[in-house]
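User: For documentation purposes, I need each entry recorded in a consistent format: the amino acid sequence on its own, followed directly by the corresponding structure tokens. There are two entries in this batch. Please keep commentary to a minimum and don't merge the entries.

Assistant: Recorded as requested. Entry 1:
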Amino acid sequence: MALVAKVIIFGEDSMSELFLNVTKREHQGKGASRRLRHAGQTAAIVYGGETAPQSITLVQKDINKALLNEAFYSSVITLDIEGTKQDVILVDLQRHPAKDLIMHADFLRVEPTTVVSKRVPLHFTNETACVGVKIGGGKITHVVSEVLITCQAKDLPASLTVDMLKVQAGTVLHISDIVMPEGVQSKDLLLGEDHNGAIASISVARGGAAAE
């Protein structure tokens, strides 16, 4: 049974849902995994919850295609394991050190209320229209591209948006400046204000008023 990655958008404000059709895997061990890779397939495992871990098989070319979707890394995915559906998140990927090849994938079972911690990407918007750039002549520097959050699985965002429109030159944005969706918290900020790291900054143009 081939793995199929589908993204269905239910509405402009809805999160996309990712579905993967996979098969059960009976044989274990390095030799079995090697034979799978030679056949264009990838070994994976699903674990967590009260159900025993389940070994599964993915199709290599299809998992590679699914990984092109940024949301695959930070969203809830529904696995259809030969007719049995399970909601999971991607926990780990083992890649070949020299080839464009996924060696193994780990998925964690989640319920809607399961509390998860996940790194999600930051999307910086309105950069060309940013006051600090357009008027102040500054330059935007991204300090980080993702942050670690915690929330219930049902609230897990695929990404977080940072609006740069009104940010002035000479400003340093921190994690606390991110507008978090309801139910979502920064893992760093939960550790205290000392962990409120920078996420982006706008330099001051040389000779500008702020520089003086």
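Entry 2:
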Amino acid sequence: MADIIAFLSNFYRLEAGDHLLLFWLKEALIALIIFSIFWGLSLLLRTLLTRWVPRFTAFTSTDLDDRILARVTPPACLLVVLAGLYYAVKSLPFPEKAHVLSAGALFIVNVIVVTNIAWRITNELLGWYGSRLAERHGGGVDRQIIPPLEKLITIFLAGIALMVVLRHFNYDILSVVTALGIGSLAIGMAAKETLANMISGFTLMVDRPFRIGDRIQLASGQWGDVADIGLRTTKIKTVDNTLLIIPNSELCNTTIINLAFPDVRAKGRINVGISYDNDVERAKSLLVETALSVPEVLREPAPEAFFVSFGDSALNVSLFFWVSEYGSVFATTDKINEQIIARFREEGITIPYPIRTVIMEKEQ
């Protein structure tokens, strides 16, 4: 008991500076304890997200949830640490102004971390969606659609984060939104055509009327293979190796024939005229036999021949055949034409020249 009284008497003899030092040591110890508790909670959260939760996500049919979990675990744990730092700093006897500044700084950091978590989740979702698009429509589709979506979502998340921070510091968000709206309107009026092409390009990427590599025919009669689908223009490589660049807004508002859809098979047609003296049924049989003798012609659907019309000097017959790929129509047509001439000569079927009969009458 005497020792305790001696200790207390010595404690009260301490100078004011010593009391202040002990006070700060005690407050710092409390802040350190608070921070240590939240640090332990962050480690517990990391263990939970890396060891226990994956046991439940393993039962799902996709690894999307596993990838999202791996991406959000580090920033989620960081949020807990920042929360501990916030309460630790708040427990310290700082002046009011210092508390406001530290709280504001930590709030900004928290908003950045939360925005980063949202961006990571969105990035994984877009990657998963892009891989599914590539599986359905072939490679290259994800590289056309996903990057613009990522940019739009990034701008959106950054705008939301900025408005939340401004609202926290009691700034007038309405005036900022109004200014942005007026600026966007001015930009939209100045770049109306460019924006129309960009929106049309995004529509083409989502609607998918054609894909890169497809052969399309425009309403003007021009046709070629799609080389690239951009945000502003679409590039088409024609058969004479020239590049046709078309604004996307024009493609969205015109009729397009996609020769590669629903599949790459193509139908060829050969028109031929035979003499009125020839046997039509025999000519049709020869056309079908000739087409079947060419390896590039498909057996299913089988080639067909039809007597289509009476011409001025010939009976018009058409041969229809299918090839496995639209790019081989011309070469296959050339082979069939060569054999048709040879077979018709062997069978005595003539392809007449145009004939006109002029009757001259004498004047009375």
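Summary note for entry 2:
Residues 17-183 form one domain.
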